[in-house]
Amino acid sequence: MRTVRVLGVDPGLTRCGVGIVDGAPGRPCSLVDVAVITSDPGQDITDRLLNLERELTVLIDKHRPESVAVERVFSQHNVGSVIGTAQASAVAILAAARFGLPLYTYTPSEVKAAVTGSGQADKKQMTTMVTRLLRLDTPPRPADAADALALAICHVWRGGTKQKLENALRKAISNDR
């Protein structure tokens, strides 16, 4: 089974988790890099988004992932938080597109289920499992870093299957025409 390199992005405007892993479905993944890109909430939004784009570009250029997995933005009660998360997500999507990388999105419950076996896992359980799965000596901190690594692991383990299903569906649709 071929090893793939995946960049996981836990989007956030103040703290954006970024994790890169190598792995193959059904096999342990290994840590390549992990970071949290931060910005000052007092800065102008354009500066914050440009900083995020620059930092993501550097990481993609340095590590050359084969695909990017981003947490799907979901509705929260705090509209301001959703807007910032959506903006950060759009920057990650744009960075992947600039490098011609396939992009996949996963809901928080999909990631939790892939990594812990339960779509209802809490932050502590996620961090514990990411630490164990990547055989790390210390847990990745803050939680945004662990979440980004969980996204990358989720895609390694589920992405191949997801891609095969999408390809089969596309083929079936084109054959019906």
Automatic annotation (TrEMBL):
The keyword Amino-acid biosynthesis does not apply. It comes from the Bacteria. Its EC number is 3.1.21.10. Keywords: Cytoplasm, DNA damage, DNA recombination, DNA repair, DNA-binding, Endonuclease, Hydrolase, Magnesium, Metal-binding, Nuclease. Transmembrane segments: none annotated. GO terms for molecular function: crossover junction DNA endonuclease activity; DNA binding; magnesium ion binding. Mg(2+) 1 binds at residues 10, 144. It catalyses: Endonucleolytic cleavage at a junction such as a reciprocal single-stranded crossover between two homologous DNA duplexes (Holliday junction). InterPro entries: RNaseH-like_sf (IPR012337), RNaseH_sf (IPR036397), X-over_junc_endoDNase_Mg_BS (IPR020563), X-over_junc_endoDNase_RuvC (IPR002176). GO terms for cellular component: cytoplasm; Holliday junction resolvase complex. GO terms for biological process: DNA recombination; DNA repair. Its cofactor is Mg(2+). The active site is at residues 10, 71, 144. Mg(2+) 2 binds at residue 71. Binds 2 Mg(2+) ion per subunit. Its main location: cytoplasm. It is found in: Cytoplasm. HAMAP family: RuvC (MF_00034). Belongs to the RuvC family. The RuvA-RuvB-RuvC complex processes Holliday junction (HJ) DNA during genetic recombination and DNA repair. Endonuclease that resolves HJ intermediates. Cleaves cruciform DNA by making single-stranded nicks across the HJ at symmetrical positions within the homologous arms, yielding a 5'-phosphate and a 3'-hydroxyl group; requires a central core of homology in the junction. The consensus cleavage sequence is 5'-(A/T)TT(C/G)-3'. Cleavage occurs on the 3'-side of the TT dinucleotide at the point of strand exchange. Homodimer which binds Holliday junction (HJ) DNA. The HJ becomes 2-fold symmetrical on binding to RuvC with unstacked arms; it has a different conformation from HJ DNA in complex with RuvA. In the full resolvosome a probable DNA-RuvA(4)-RuvB(12)-RuvC(2) complex forms which resolves the HJ. This is Crossover junction endodeoxyribonuclease RuvC.
